[in-house]
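[audit] Reproducing an earlier prediction to check determinism. Same input, same settings, fresh worker. If the tokens differ from the archived copy the diff job will pick it up downstream; this log only records the rerun itself.
[audit] input (214 residues):
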Amino acid sequence: MILKSRFINREAELEFLRKKYRSGKAELIIVYGRRRIGKTYLLQRFLSEVGGVYLLAEESETILEDFSERLASYFNDPVLKENPLRSWKGFFTYLYNKSSERLLVVIDEVQYIAKAHKEFLSVLQKYWDLELSKTKIMLVLCGSLVSFMEGVLSAKSPIYGRRTGSWKVEEMDFFSVKDFHPIDVETAVRIYSVFGEFRSTGQTIIQEWTFGIT
């Protein structure tokens, strides 16, 4: 049996993002939550609606090069492809030059950037104040290290006072379990009582439970 991906119980989050996008003004949005609860799927669903650039940070020494490659592909920029960005100053200046029209940029797993490049948030603060806040960019920073992301939201953060919105993505509640798969209430109760929450792996759990686990 093949299970298709379904978008369940994230309409509030999606509408929040849509509203920010429709504002037409510069938006700096923070999205965070524990791992495997659907943050990336939410953002990719939003990107599929409005278009934009998705940049996934990894624990590597080539983050800027990787981002340059993705930006070059999105903007069909052969110059950037041959000459990757070498600094976060260059990165934010590039985004500034591309944001005269509405532009959505999602940076996922942003905690990896801050770990490898301590100056990242301070450079963002500077260029947000000087340039990006005057454009039509919607910049979304997403992270799964909750303690770090809460620090980004705190008064001690370099970008404190710059964000225009934030959303903590929570685990799905019990009443969302049944919407993932046609199961009866008794089975849903049993699943939820065992796992205590419903994260993005819940569809697999339900499939296994209903096809052999008793």
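[audit] rerun output stored. Observation attached for the diff report: Residues 174-210 form one domain.
[audit] end
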